Amino acid sequence: MNRLIIGIGGMTNGGKSTLSRSLQGLVPNSCIISQDSFFKDDSVVPVDSHGFKQYDTLDAIHMDRMMSKVKSWVQDPQSFMLSQGLSVQESSVFSLIVEGFLIFNYGPLNELFDKRYFLQIPYETCKLRRSSRVYVPPDPVGYFDGHVWPMYLKNRKEMENMVQDLVFLDGNQKREDLLATVYKDIQQMFTAG
C-alpha cells in the first residue's frame, strides 16, 4: 500500500482549507486532518501584554491529539478512513492532507510530510479576508495588526529556518489554477512512486 502525506500550510485566510477540500475531491482515498480542529479551549489560551489571546502559537493547539490522529492514519489508512465515515475505493494508494497554519513549525509532524505547500497572500488581502470572517470568540479591535500579522511573520521566519523543501503558492491565484498545480504535482508523485 502506497501512502502519501501532503502538508498544506500558510497564513490565516490564505486558502488552505479551500485547497485541501478541493484536492480531497480529486484524489481518491484521501482525507483531511485540519489543525484548526485541535485548538485548546479559549479559557486556557494565554494572553499577551496587550490583552490579545495567543492563538497563533503551538501552545494554543493540542498537537499531541493531532499527532495521535495522524499516527492513526499512518498505521492503517483504510481503517482510519472508514472510522471517519469516508468511502474507500479499490486502490493501493492512500493520501492524507494535513492543513494548518503552524503544521511546518512542529518538527514531529513536519518530518512526516512527503510534500509541503505553503499558501501566501499579501498583507492587505489577508487583512481584508480576515475581517470578512466571523470568529468565535470574535477578534478584538486591533488584533490583526497587533497580534495576527506579527505572529505570522515570526512563525514564517521560524518555519523557513526549519524547512527546506517548501513549495510556495500564490493564494491570489484562481482556485482552479492552484488546484491544478498541486494536483499535477501529486499525480507525478504517484506515478514516480
Helix content: 40-55%
User: How far is it from the N-terminal to the C-terminal residue, by CA?
Assistant: 11 Å
Succession of helices and strands: EHEHHEHEHHEH
Strand content: 15-25%
How would you describe the oligomerization state of the chains in this entry?
A: single chain
Overall strand count? 5
Low-confidence stretches: none
- Global outline: globular
Mean pLDDT: 93
Largest sheet: 5 strands, parallel
Instruction: List the total number of helices.
Output: 7
What does the radius of gyration come to? 17 Å
Strand order of the largest sheet: 2-3-1-4-5
Structural class: alpha/beta
Written overview of the protein:
The chain has seven helices and five strands; from the N terminus they run βαβααβαβααβα. With 193 residues, it is of the alpha/beta class. A five-stranded parallel sheet has the order 2-3-1-4-5, with helices on both faces. The longest helix has 20 residues, at 143-162. The protein is globular and about 55 Å long.
Note the main attributes of this structure.
193 residues; alpha/beta; five-stranded parallel sheet; 17% strand; globular
